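User: I'm curious whether this sequence folds into something compact or stays loose and floppy. Could you predict its structure so I can see for myself?
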Amino acid sequence: MNRGFSLGDRTLDHLRALVDAPDVEGTRYELIELVGRGGMGSVWRARDRLLERDVALKVLNLAEPEAAAAADPAQGPRPAEVRGARIVQEAQVLARLEHPGIVPVHDAGVLPDGRAFACMKFVRGKRLDELVSAGLSESERLSIFSRIAESVAFAHSRGVLHLDLKPANIMVGEFGEVLVLDWGLARLEHRPQKGVRAGTLGFMAPEQERAAADLDARADVFALGRVLASLELGGREIAAIVARATRERREERYGSAMELHSDVQAFLSNERVRALREGPAARLARFGRKYRAALWLVGAYALMRVGFELFRLWRESGNS
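Assistant: Here's the prediction. I'll summarize afterward.
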């Protein structure tokens, strides 16, 4: 009797990687290892032999046999062609976004096996969701979020929407650099497109889930609010900032990523957070937090003076 056998998940993943490995023969790149795989493509760590540095190669996945068989040229581009175009589009978007918080692209094109690729900086570090679960301090989380919002605001200033912001697409490097990754769904803000529902559930704005054609910066503001909520921070101010960023109606959200960033900075500086109505008691409490050190020194000085006066009066009463 023949006994059946099964391969472990790690073995299957290794075999799948071998089959799906891109053909880089004749290029300047040498594959080292598979570092990630998504629905559209896989990311490989590779060696750029010309410049002698490690790079990240994002390569279109091999077409599924069923999808290839079902594709009809008369009905427009095949799924693989669309996905390949997205990789090239991502490289073109990144090429216009030169910012320390956005991963730079070095090269793009087509490999010998016909698959589109983009070559980017290889980032060593951890994803934001991994760092949060590892126990980042509250101030470190807010500092990282501020830098994320700055990068997104820069992209918006160049007319580019990310549309897939989430902790898994934020990388914090070994030396504290914060990089926004995966711009595969990015589009130009002022070029309405035929509605396509794409993004990540839980981070997509309501209008993005409805596949609205006229998305604007407030879709990314919504996602930034969700990212801020995922950082597990307490306090009325942060809750108010999250609530405003993630309003159902985009007209009620922050108008831009920079406005959201400014409110977070106001919280960090113990200034008034515009998302929160502040009564006299809350204003007094914030004043106390902001000038805690100065108030402590004034209080200590006043206590010392009172003590000195009491001691002087006691001396005088003893000598009379």
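Summary: The beta strands are 29-37, 41-48, 53-60, 105-110, 116-121, 125-127, 160-161, 170-173, 178-180, 187-188. Residues 64-75 have pLDDT under 50 and may be disordered.
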